[in-house]
Amino acid sequence: MMGQWLLAVVVRFVVFAVLWWVLAEGGMYQWWFGVAMAAVGAGLSLALLRPTGVWVNPLAVMRFVPFFLRQALLGGVDVGRRAVRRPLDVQPTFIDYTLKMESMAARVLFVCMVSLVPGTVSCELRGGEVAVHVLDGRMDARGALDELERHVGAMFGARG
């Protein structure tokens, strides 16, 4: 338990210190203020959000970034294309998607990211199932959601 807190303090301090350094445009002229603010930020974040023991795989996060950007672009293009096409090319429907991930943090992130999948938006998380609105029932929404779940699951250590 103490090791988990120590790791959380160090990681959060480093994150806030790097954030300060970025905001200061790499300048080190007031480094002492940056160190103090990083310590305050780490302390406040620990008071507001206690360590949970959930660990995110940094390599999987780096693999998620290009996937995220690609999906965001494809989703925007798809919705834009459908919006200007006449007659509207949509067959809206709802599907229930059953999650394979056990981690609640992973499930919540998945629900937040569903709207990345072109033509979808999450509506409700019910235990291990997500209600998803699909803009066009003819598209392979389940396959796209499976791919998203693999990426999110990998960030939280899930296999497959």
From TrEMBL:
It is found in: Cell membrane. Its main location: membrane. It comes from the Bacteria. Keywords: Cell membrane, Membrane, Transmembrane, Transmembrane helix. InterPro entries: Cation_antiport_E (IPR002758). It is a multi-pass membrane protein. The chain crosses the membrane at residues 5-23, 29-49. Belongs to the CPA3 antiporters (TC 2.A.63) subunit E family. This is Na+/H+ antiporter subunit E. The lineage of its organism: Bacteria, Pseudomonadati, Planctomycetota, Phycisphaerae, Phycisphaerales.
